[in-house]
Amino acid sequence: MTTPEYVGAALGLMPLAYVGFGLLVFLLQGRLLYVPHRYSMQDAQIRARGLDLRFWPTPASEYHGLIHDDGPDQPQGVILLFHGNAGSALDRTYYISQLEHLGYRVILCEYPGYGARPGKRRQHDLVAAGINATRAAFEQFGCPPILIGESLGCGVASAIAGSQQVPVQGVLLITPWDTLPDLAQSLYWFFPAKGFTRDPYDNIKPLQRFPGPVGVVMAEKDQIIPTRNTQRLFDGLTGIKRLWVLKNVGHNDWPSAVDESWWNDVTGFVAGQSPTPQYASPPAAVAKR
């Protein structure tokens, strides 16, 4: 085969390779999006005790997350933390050390298919679990909680707040995107990735239905979520909102750029300006699937 024939054959295979790449991404996107740390229940309990945490609520086999036994005696509020796509709730203890010092009770929520929790890692299941956790916190502690999401967890927190199924005081989104399909298209610009994304994780539409305050935190040098996607999210919000830009930090090292005064500022915003929704009766529990 001559050189032109080799070139022609290679060019002829390019569309097939392009389609094959798209099919591969579509089939493997769950593994690309969700990168959990998995533990047996016994191992998770051992690790939790080593961090002075306990499963919440009991029994442990039905836990929503992790809570610190030695939290504030008279907390000024409750915060539910929804972590990013990697690791587990056991990896997010820095939120407890920062926020309990300000007087908040902090619950590190765990997703189905992460940690020791059974279940499917799909948007519907993560959001349903988050709604149930938010309802349980409201019923036990008697006040609408603040929701904090980081990265993927922003999509969960936004969906909970916009569901209108549970009371929420305010929402803080740390390194969020606008929608997952839009993010995928930004990252894979050479491919119609937007049409191949199964779970939307839309942070805009649900929050347009939420009456409370929404804080958005952008990492100036975010190497995973382009800042234009975070800015589009903020621009799309129509209610009470505020943007913080953390200078010279990326997607994973942003905690090194904040201190107690910063946390006091952001929590004060999401806690202090929210109109508390009125609920005639407790909403029905979200069905598990």
Molecular structure report:
The longest helix is centred in the first third of the chain and has 31 residues, at 3-33. Mean pLDDT is 86; it is low at 273-289. The termini are far apart. This protein is an alpha/beta fold and 289 residues long. Strand 2 (53-56) and strand 3 (65-68) form a beta hairpin. The strands form 2 sheets. The chain has an 8-stranded mixed β-sheet, sandwiched between helices. Strands 1-5 form a two-stranded parallel ribbon. The chain has helices at residues 3-33, 41-50, 93-99, 123-141, 152-163, 180-187, 205-208, 227-236, 260-272; strands at residues 35-36, 53-56, 65-68, 77-82, 86-87, 104-109, 146-150, 170-174, 214-219, 241-246.
SSE map:
Layout: H1 3-33, E1 35-36, H2 41-50, E2 53-56, E3 65-68, E4 77-82, E5 86-87, H3 93-99, E6 104-109, H4 123-141, E7 146-150, H5 152-163, E8 170-174, H6 180-187, H7 205-208, E9 214-219, H8 227-236, E10 241-246, H9 260-272
Parallel strand pairs: 1-5, 4-6, 4-7, 7-8, 8-9, 9-10
Antiparallel strand pairs: 2-3, 3-6
Helix pairs in contact: 4-5
Q: Helix fraction?
A: 25-40%
Termini separation comes to 57 Å
Instruction: Briefly note the structural class of the backbone.
Output: alpha/beta
Supply Rg: 21 Å
Kindly report the CATH topology. Answer: Rossmann fold
Q: Residue ranges: pLDDT <50 for 5 or more in a row? A: 273-289
Determine the CATH superfamily: Alpha/Beta hydrolase fold, catalytic domain
Q: Based on the structure given, which CATH architecture is correct? A: 3-Layer(aba) Sandwich
What is the average per-residue confidence, as pLDDT, rounded to a whole number? 86
